[in-house]
Amino acid sequence: MTETRNTVILGSGCAGLTAAIYTARAGLNPLVLEGHEPGGQLSITTLVENFPGWPEGIQGPDLIDNMKKQAARFGASFELAHLSRVELGAHPIKLHTSLGEIATRTLIVASGASARWLGLPSEQALIGHGVSSCATCDGCFFRAQDIAVVGGGDSAMEEALFLTRFASKVTLLHRREAFRASKIMLDRAMAHSNIELRTNTVVEEVLGVEEKEVTGVRIRDVKTGVVSILHIKGLFLGIGHEPNAKMFAGQMDLDEDGYIKTTGNVLTTFNGQPIPGVFACGDVQDRRYRQAITAAGSGCMAALEVEKFLEDHGH
Ligand code: NDP
């Protein structure tokens, strides 16, 4: 094992990179472990129009690239290491990675959230070939095509409405009768002439694996048991996100959906009581706002807490 680091940041999305800029400028030489989706959700987005400072908008990957360069300029280093295990109770904290063991006085968890999938083998085989979890990224590939969106929450409504810009028809498939979506979003989707809502419907298989492009979905009405084929060219999943916090289970308090619990104002993590030197920021601890700018803001807060923690502990 090499020397003990001042801080390690898990994740390289908006939150992690902002934490990297701040801790690097504070002279802490942060190490960013980029994780399995480098750049996070912004790296698979197209135009970001609501990040302050970019009046014409900026492409998500460019925004991430800029943040990374900005952090690197002040001395942040980046590794694509895979993290297998953490020991949060150890002093210093121990990270077991594909690069070996890393010891650190503080840890910023910015591991984000990933889109949820149905988990069907046919769905997984066709990701990028007609199956997508990002309407803003992939919607434009489905001009004048029939497509479907799965889900009954605000994400599904938003995706379905957005996709009407391109698709000739959007069928919204929801597994239950009742919707989780807010009334205003549901009303908008219901009122749209190019959106058809089908409730009590589950997707059993995505068709087109041999052809390497989506040709349809086999769906089942859970009330009548009737199985039918819906001919579509694209399938979008709008069924929520999973926080990337499983590796902390048992060492950190997670909420019922697996998000890291933090105190709102200082982003401290807990395991019954505060875990010294471990802070979480961004979507892994935020089920509510989930915006690039809120993730960046919380990354800044976590970095300032790390500075304060190190100062209070004489480093
Ligand atoms: P939600 O958890 O609200 O909804 C997920 C939906 O997907 C539910 O209808 C759920 O069904 C369904 N679902 C989950 N797993 C499966 C599965 N395996 N198979 C089929 N269906 C499944 O997530 P959202 O991403 O929609 O929203 C998250 C938060 O973000 C919410 O607070 C929402 O309000 C907010 N948001 C706000 C927006 C806005 O205001 N513009 C836009 C997008 C999100 P079931 O209902 O049966 O559980």
Provide structural commentary.
The protein has 315 residues and is of the alpha/beta class. It has two domains: 4-114 and 241-312, FAD/NAD(P)-binding domain (3-Layer(bba) Sandwich); 117-237, 3-Layer(bba) Sandwich (FAD/NAD(P)-binding domain), CATH 3.50.50. Helix content is 24%, strand content 29%. It is built from seven helices and 20 strands. It has helices spanning 14-25, 60-73, 121-125, 135-138, 154-163, 183-191, 292-312, and strands at 5-10, 31-33, 47-48, 58-59, 77-79, 83-87, 93-97, 100-109, 113-115, 131-132, 146-150, 169-173, 195-198, 201-207, 216-221, 227-230, 234-237, 241-243, 268-271, 273-280. The strands form five sheets. Strands 1, 2, 5, 6, 7, 8, 19 and 20 form an eight-stranded mixed sheet that branches. The chain has a five-stranded parallel sheet with strand order 10-17-11-12-13. Helix 1 packs parallel to helix 7 (292-312) and helix 5 (154-163) runs parallel beside helix 6 (183-191). The model has no long low-confidence stretch (mean pLDDT 94). The chain binds NADPH dihydro-nicotinamide-adenine-dinucleotide phosphate.
For this entry, give a set of tags.
FAD/NAD(P)-binding domain; 2 domains; alpha/beta; binds NADPH dihydro-nicotinamide-adenine-dinucleotide phosphate; single chain; elongated; five-stranded parallel β-sheet; eight-stranded mixed β-sheet; 7 helices; 315 residues
